[in-house]
Specification:
233 residues; alpha/beta; Rossmann fold; Beta-Lactamase; 2 domains; five-stranded antiparallel β-sheet; 6 helices
């Protein structure tokens, strides 16, 4: 049977083609009908794709489509993602989010990141493979989570590309970002054997706390991340 024992359903919709909204909605309903009696029900991850074509997107119709999808999937856990192939991080984030929700190992890893956040005065943390896949994350609140997602979406592709292409001796150990009105973040690279990982930390603490405590905690962060990764992977 199609979709038998599905854990996660990824459903991709071209949001630049509103004429296809009706048939894609009908097809999604037919899938939901198949899955409605499955226990447990799978996660439903809706990828609103081609989000780069702003001039072609009829936002009012997209909002209506999302409301229709919520109604059709009311008994399912569902999330929406705005994606585009021109920003690979948007797609990677959607797939990482789904995997993290069904992986017990990822859940345990997030608890370790939460502990690390309390020790390093961080409001949000992301642990990422060198291909951009999110292994684990922690956020204190929705604002911090959103800020970390913005950093990830707009910087991680460039950051990982740089590390793949520059000579080892030219690779910076970490990159520090200062938003005076939003907070502070740093991106750090950690290598374990032949595997490379990236780490994003975001803090909304005042500058004095960041200078006194957060920057000092960077000294031990690499070792902490290595210990966490070795525990679970």
């Amino acid at each position: 049977m199609p979709f038998y024992e599905t854990d996660i359903l990824y459903y991709v919709i071209d949001v630049s083609d509103s004429e296809r909204f009706s048939p894609t909605m009908n097809y999604l309903k037919s899938i939901i009908e198949i899955l409605k009696n499955q226990t447990p029900k799978p996660l439903v991850m809706i990828l609103l794709n081609k989000n780069d074509r702003k001039e072609e997107i009829k936002e009012d119709l997209v909002q209506k489509l999302q409301n229709d999808i919520r109604t059709a999937t009311k008994d399912f856990e569902i999330e929406f993602f705005r994606t585009t192939i021109f920003e690979a991080a948007t797609l990677m984030h959607a797939f990482s989010e789904g995997i993290s929700k069904v992986s017990k190992k990822t859940s345990e890893l997030s608890l370790q990141l939460k502990q690390m956040a309390s020790e390093t005065f961080a409001d949000a943390l992301l642990l990422i493979e060198n291909n951009g896949f999110i292994l684990g994350e922690y956020s204190k609140d929705e604002i911090s989570k959103k800020m970390c997602e913005i950093i990830y979406t707009h910087l991680i592709s460039a950051f990982t590309y740089m590390y793949r292409t520059v000579q080892k001796e030219e690779k910076p150990e970490r990159i520090f970002i200062d938003w005076e009105d939003k907070g502070y973040a740093y991106l750090e690279n950690t290598q374990i054997d032949k595997f490379e990982f990236f780490f994003i930390s975001f803090s909304r603490n005042p500058r004095k706390i960041v200078q006194k405590f957060v920057l000092r905690s960077l000294i031990n962060s690499s070792n902490q991340i290595k210990d966490i990764v070795k525990s679970y992977f």
